[in-house]
């Protein structure tokens, strides 16, 4: 399909939804109007009572001397996850027209003493009981180790923005299986939850706009392309990008290894998500699905998730020895009683060999189709949560297209993939660890960031059931000294106050989003931290660079598509199975050419006329070539070798060489890697 025109000229995508219409009212077809002069950052009518912000000073705006925006990026947050999972896993709301007392209250089953909070107990946040009262006392929540209470109240998000954050990726999130196990107010269809969370995000924008005098005047701006985001940030406001992180996108779950979706579902789903304003997404999350295998959770949590996978799909995770240095997380072996009792009688979690640390499941053919669909629409792929087998295949495909739209947003990718991400032009953010842990992880890839000239992001995963930095103590060497100045020096931040509770990072840890600036200050006060804060201040610019490059990217034209193909031999199996060479250029990854079972075999395609050729991509079946070469000819008689290897590893191979004229392109197998012949699903030929 062709790409939506809105990505290029500000026009609307063909499937214009209510959400895009709302955004268009604000943004129109061009840059966002300039902010009003004066104290534009102060609302004209904040609800009363409400949370305090506890920040003074003018938010910085504009660009630096090099024309680049400044500011932090939270690349992974879940503003609306209280609307997912059936509506009762995350208690409390990001905003409410009825005010803060309605927004920041606990789930009904948590009253009177928290003993009914099933999910909170399972995740270990309250040791069996907690005070359910939120506003105005907040005795027990939000807390850095409480995984079921709202951390993204709009005023706390506002404080993070005032403290220097300029981009926030709002990942719409849910899980149908978890929904089915918990109390709920609504159904468990994952796409219904994604639609609701998108709608609530636009409603939050309108809610904040109303405080500032009308549409477009608030600091919270949902953006649809990189140019809009840059315009928002140059005004000093917060650019909000919609993403999706869910286990069954488009209904693509699997049951007993049978996919519950098809290509038409994927096309419809991607069109719908793009119409909602979604610009980045995960193809799998927590459970293996019909698109890809997941990177395991580890420890006890991993066992609980593995049980959840069985309940959802009918299969447990399966492992194998890793093919390379990358590996998935190790799987714990102690099953939480609350989850183990959900298993049918006689079923238990399997044991796993200690030397088999990789998921056997990679990127499926449907997953490849979805990834190609994302590239056609100019969307960014979130690599985190993919098994290393799936991530490696995805990177192969992205590299074959030189597609820059790839992101690791919260430390769920094997770090050995980092340079491949940067080489493509992608973006990396770390999970919101404690200050020392964050600095330590940043140091591991500091040389690569310098090499590629990129900044760094953080992914808070607020409302994402992850756990957050605990209190360092008031006497810690890197204790935050209140009040303190923001990294740019323009704002002063004091302890944050909501109702009767005063929050202090030193004694409370990162309990909610409003304490993110305090956490950044603690990083600055930690040895090695000032340089990391400087890299964080360049994170928004790096993210925008990746996004813009993704939008501008033109997918390569396959010069071999539909052209005549021939081969030295074709395997004959029976009259009802076709392995002819033309199947490698038919655009269908479910068909393939297969040769007879001997080494010296070739397949060639006639481009119809002499063209410039500089790249050949091969999608091998299990019967692949260890040694082979790419040969070119202008007349079909005189051949020259343009590229060769003796170390082919199958999968997705891309051969690049100096562009040169050719009408005929031949893949010449020299040495088989298996006992069978050579077999190719697809052959792609392009200029470069």
UniProtKB/TrEMBL annotation:
Q: SUPFAM superfamilies, per this entry?
A: Galactose-binding domain-like, Metallo-dependent hydrolases
**Domain F5/8 type C residue range list:** 550-688
Q: Which domain of life is it from?
A: Bacteria
Protein name (Swiss-Prot/TrEMBL): F5/8 type C domain protein
Q: Which organism is it from?
A: Streptomyces showdoensis
